[in-house]
Amino acid sequence: MHGNMFRRAAIGLGLVGATAAASLVAAAPANAGPYCAAGYHCVFITSLGSAQHSYFNSDTNFTDDYFTNGSNVNDNVWSASNSSTGGYESHYYYDINYGGGLVFCVNPGHAVEYTQLTTDGIAGNHAGQRDEASSLRLRPTTPISCF
Predict the structure, then answer these.
(1) Nearest to 141 by CA among 96, 114, 101, 110
(2) Is 36 helix (H, G, I), strand (E, B) or coil?
(3) Distance between CA 62 and CA 79 in Å, rounded?
(4) CA-CA distance, 50 to 79, in Å (whole number)?
(5) Which of 42, 75, 90, 100 is spaced 20 to 30 Å from 81 by Cα?
(6) What is the pLDDT of residue 50?
(7) In which region does residue 63 sit, left (phi positive, over 0), alpha (psi from -120 to 50) or beta (all else)?
(8) Which helix (H) or strand (E) holds 138?
(9) What is the rounded CA–CA span in Å between residue 83 and residue 62?
(10) Residues 109 and 30: beta-carbon distance below 8 Å
(11) What sections of the chain are H helices per DSSP?
């Protein structure tokens, strides 16, 4: 009799544990990039988690956007994270109004750290990827290879 009680208790605890784990997994957004709220596309002044600016929609001009530390976003993006809940890729461009060509893009649920971006150490000169982005276009899934 005691064996049955222990077995039932163990099974019950296993079910409770599995249910709790399932609800924790369900609570996390499927496409959440690190350090970026669900539904947003975030850029960072240095590494992921540093001073950031969050975008919910495309933005044609970063010159009037500021990181949480007060620095201007334009030509100062070092890292980026994509927490799109609609499956949109984050496409960053060299110039305002999506001009100058694509700097880099980030898939939903992913991020790019500054160590993964090329740089020549000079901001805004269209050479490399770090310190170059001036606009963001949200795009549905494309054949372009993104981070």
Answers:
(1) 110
(2) coil
(3) 15
(4) 9
(5) 100
(6) 98
(7) alpha
(8) strand 135-139
(9) 19
(10) yes
(11) 2-27
Query: Which amino acid appears at position 81 of this protein?
Result: S
Contact residues for 130 (Cβ-Cβ < 8 A; gap 6+) = 77, 78, 114, 117, 118, 119
| pLDDT in the model for residue 30 | 60
- pLDDT averaged per 10 residues, the chain (length 147): 41 39 40 92 98 98 98 98 96 98 98 98 96 98 95
Taking CA atoms, 111 is separated from 8, 16, 57, 137, 139, in Å, by 45, 34, 17, 16, 16
Query: What are the Cα distances from residue 101, in Å, to 65, 95, 126?
Result: 20, 8, 9
Which residues lie closer than 8 Å to 80 by C-beta, 6 or more apart? 41, 42, 43, 44, 90, 92, 104, 106, 111, 112, 147
